[in-house]
Structure formats: structure tokens, C-alpha cells
Amino acid sequence: MSLAGKRVAILAEELYEDLELWYPYYRLLEEGATVTLVGPEAKAYESKHGYPAKADVAASDVSAADFDAVVVPGGFAPDRLRRYPAVLDLVRGVSEKNGVIGAICHAAWVPISAHVVKGKRATCVAAIKDDLINAGADYVDEAVVVDGNLVTSRTPADLPVWLPALIKAIAGA
């Protein structure tokens, strides 16, 4: 399946989960997507395991019109990312134009804070399922849940099923 011509933002912040950023990054590149790392600032962010990811641009310097999808890795980064209005505006804007929002593990905090999960079926790491429920989502404990333009997953162990579903959703966006 080719993602040629598709533009995807992957969000980065301090203490991101390594596999949840780099696995999607390289798989999306392999499929032909243009992938841009977006952070609160255009700088390097260290992962939970000390591996840096350099954000190509700051969230305040891009808009939803620039992307067909936004992927949010988990780790501790989502707790930081959800505090930046420009990040939330980007996620909300992409969702409003029916672009794909991909979130895995703790990443559900970002679409929650962007107010794009109400009425959607979604999953996340069990530790924050109450947050998803309280935001109005229908929480289900499944490896991958696709509801319209929202593609969610629980943990790094689910990456092999989440990525194909994410790629399929982006291809159709």
C-alpha cells in the first residue's frame, strides 16, 4: 500500500516511548509518506531511553492544512504535549478535516485534550482508560481500534497490528 503524496506529522517531546515514535516513523517512510517530526519547539527531544529525536518544526509553525495525519507516540511525552495550545490546535485541526489521528498507549491524552474523542470508540494503555472514558469515548480493551479517523492502540506490544491499521487509514484519507 503506497502512501506517496501523504504528509504525516509525528509529535515529539521529552521522554517519548522510543518504539512508538521510531517504528511508525520508518514504516511510514517505507510506505512513501512524507514524515515530519513536530515538537513544541524545533529542537532535539530525548526518549525514555535517551535516544534523541530532532523535531523538524515547531507546532506553532505548521497548520492542519500541512498534514493528512498526526501520529502521537506514547511514553511520558503526551503528558507534556497536551499542555501546548499549538499542538492541540494541530491535532484538532487535522481531525476536523477528517485527517487521521493515530495514538498509542499514553498518547490518548493528546486527542483527549484536543477534544476529538467524544463519542468515538478508542483504546489506550489501561492506566489512563478512565481519562478516555471521562472524555466521552467508548473505551474498549483491544489491540487496535479504528473509529472513523481515529486509530488507537494500547502498548508497544500492539505495534504490529496498529501500524497496518494506521497505514490503511492514512491511505484512505
User: CATH homologous superfamily - what is it?
Assistant: Class I glutamine amidotransferase (GATase) domain
Task: Tell me the quaternary state.
Answer: single chain
Q: What is the total number of structural domains?
A: 1
CATH architecture: 3-Layer(aba) Sandwich
| Structural class determined from secondary elements | alpha/beta
Q: What value does the average pLDDT take? A: 97
Low-confidence stretches are: none
According to DSSP, the number of beta strands is 11
**Main beta sheet:** 7 strands, mixed
Amount of helix: 25-40%
Distance between the amino and carboxyl termini = 13 Å
Give, in spatial order, the strands making up the sheet with the most strands: 5-2-1-6-7-11-10
Radius of gyration: 14 Å
Q: How much β-strand is present in the residues?
A: 15-25%
List the secondary-structure elements in sequence, H or E: EHEEEEEHHEHEHEEEH
What name is given to the CATH topology?
Rossmann fold
Shape field:
globular
CATH class: Alpha Beta
Number of helices: 6
Overview of the molecule:
Helices cover 32% and strands 23% of the residues. With 173 residues, the protein is an alpha/beta fold. The protein has a single domain, classed as Class I glutamine amidotransferase (GATase) domain (Rossmann fold). The strands form three sheets. The chain has a seven-stranded mixed β-sheet with strand order 5-2-1-6-7-11-10, sandwiched between helices. The protein has a two-stranded antiparallel sheet with strand order 3-4. A hairpin with a 5-residue loop joins β3 (44-46) and β4. The longest helix is centred in the last third of the chain and has 14 residues, at 159-172. The mean pLDDT is 97.
